[in-house]
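Worked example 2:
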Amino acid sequence: MRLNGVPTDLGSRAFEILETLVQSAGELIDKYDLMNRVWPGAAVEENTLQAQISAIRKALGPDRGLLKTIAGRGYRLLGDWVIQQEAVTAVGMPAAEPIQSHVTNLTAPTNALIGRAAAEIQLSELLSTYRMVTMTGPGGIGKSVLAHAVARSLLATFGGDGLLVELASLSDPAMVPLVVAAVLGLKQRGDEVSIETITREIGTKKLLLVLDNCEHLIEGAARLAEALVRSCPYTTILATSREVLRIDGEYVYRVPPLDIPGQERGGDRDVLGYSAAQLLVARTKALNADFSPSAENLQLVASISRQLDGIPLAIEFAAARIATLGLQQVAARLHDRFNLLTSGFRTALPRHQTLLATLDWSYELLSETEARVLRHLAVFNGNFSLDAAAAVTADMDATAADMLAGLVVKSLVAADFQAGDDHYRLLDTTRAYALEKLRAAGEYQEAARRHAEYFRAALLQAEAESNPLPQADWQKRYGRYLGNVRAGLDWAFSADGDLQVGAALTAAAVPLWVHLSLFGECRERTELALARLDDGATGSTRLRMQLSAALGWSLTYSQGRARETGPALAITLELAERLDDKDYRLRALWGLCVDQFNNGEFLKALEFAQRFTRAAEESADPTDSMLGDRLLAVSLHFLGNQKDARNHIDRVDASLDRLVGRPRIFPLDLRISTQYFRARILWLQGFAGQALRLVERNIEEGRANGHALTFCSVLGQAACPIAFWAGDLDAAEHYGDVLFEHTERHAIRLWRLWAGCFRGMVMAKRGNVDAGLALLRSEIGRAGDARLLPRFLLPLGELAVCLGEANEIDNGLAAVDEALERCKARHEEWYVPELLRIKGELMLKGSPHRSASSAEAYFFDALHLARQQGALFWELRNAVSLARLWAAQDRKAEARQIIAQVCETRGDSLQIADAREARALLDGLDAK
């Protein structure tokens, strides 16, 4: 393009935009229409268009005002324009020079470029806007391959020469001008070649120059690139380097790894939808045409892709091994990746022929201090902050900020900068390499100790912040500590570790495991710490108390019933009394109360709840008194005293607006967990409308909370059973599926077992009795001792119902009798009215035990007990069963009276299935 007779540099995309605007000069061109015309079929950000518009305005110089922006809509080009010889010119300006053939040494590609379409588009746009673009990234990320592909694709519209200068074989920065001169075809002696002669030779030629592999010659490459940008106005440079050139006008593009599958197990298509997996499969097929991974093997493909960080070169090496050893062998041996991944192409650069050589190349370019810093950072397993890096590298001759910045620039440390949440990480392969160097240098023990002690202190601070921070925010901020905590504990309990540091770190990590619902891991780690704890060491008594509490809690919430739970919590209580630690006294009493629930000792649970309430009176934290009321409410609910349970749960509910933060001694969200038990109590009392509205709100709050165990309890304690009792099978099925999937994702075993039982219940209630019964039997059998937990009474009762529907009356009666015996022995009264009703219904079915009079007696007993408990829902159900029986016996007046009495009782249950059935039965009796 020429402006006022002077050639003006304008990239190909900018030229297309200008051409489009000229064709509609004076008219408004919508910005989206413009993007669709210039980038057809591509997903382009609006800021990409804005960058091109800026380039056009820059080219227009003093006439930039001709290009108007219409805010929020698009652009309008003013003035008179014509098109001459397919070239856009201003009136009175000469047409562009005719297209000429151009020189290039860029070769054709040998393989399809997988997973780089978006990067190619972005780099093409950048090169249309900026004259100096540097592609950076760690070794093996594919900088060179991508740069070659982008440069080749640009040549078609670039309008100039495209030359590649390969710098990998050089060792002296002073040789850079000589190699460039040779590529340009300068016929001068080596000692006469300088940067100045090169800039003079290029002059005003239009040139796309690719400087490949600059990192080991960074000073020489930077000087040359800066001179070309300053002196050659029509030269565009694309450089590849593991380190930024740091020159004026440079735009840095960090080449991302290929997309990798997440940890969650998905379908086959999900795995093959990620470019890292696509590359692994494609390259393996190229070397072994018979390779075709099965559905199960695709999960190995996903795992290998993740472990290799989506680095193309590492994936190429892995593909070569898979072609000869198979997926199973490579996946199993990937921990020894530097010995395993050694089969590069013979024609590749030496540093690209093994994975180890690739990393050696980068490591050997570091200064001594930089290399030591990188080694010490290898103790981090996952993300780490600047503060964490400073703690681990405290005695080194530079600040942590400077050291990290240098390693980020050299593409050895990845940085993720988000508002208020900056952090860093080493790619897994880089970490494995640096860790070997750390051990070889004899520095591992020192770094590992600092690492473990830093995270112990950080976790104590995190626990202090657990109250003011919402659950989701706390998890986001501190959840990333998990990998580092695991690494710290692995070191501390190793042969060369420090057991006391390990015990202290374990105790500090308990809130993290609780917040993440990792009770199984908490149990395993605390058992190990307790077994290895030195009771003679300073502070060991307090540590044993803390670890015993953690063990008790983790057993309670991961296994439910466990012999070790009570003794662990009893030790906690004893040590808390000895140390006069009020906080851990309450923790122990809470845990012992829940343990009694799980063991079916409901009267003992009530005693512990009362002890907790008395101890809470001495606490300065008003939340402890609320927890006491909640314990009492739950104890009374299971004992069948719904009236007093309601009083206590309402007291908690009334105090929730004064709740400042999360209770220290309760692993669930108190606001949410109060409401699901309140919904249960309201339901049994007959306030169905209130309970259903509360369930709906509770689900929203539980999902938003982000705590896995809390959400399981929301679904399992209230949403699932209440929807089932209401007869809303669509909602029940949906809630059950959500619970099942949630427990699968978070490995919460006890709720997973219950969710399986619930699926069988819903299936049978929908009419598929055989399949539902089979699933219900199977899941109850798998539950083992867990079926003795209070929540399993509902599936056990429905098992008896299903057996009756399947004409297994004797088995049904045996099942309900077993459940009734359990309730009698444990004073577990809350579900007894329903069990008695189920037994009465079974007695009415065809069997040797058929007896209408016995059924009537069971219904009467159930009605009396339901009224005692204040459980209008059970009363309603039994009244319907009794009225049906009396109606069949032509005792219509009695049937009408008992139904009418229940329907007129206070409550708001008239919209649920049982109430509709009662009303329909009453209407039928009235009609007769």
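The chain has a mean pLDDT of 85. The chain has 43 helices and 14 strands.
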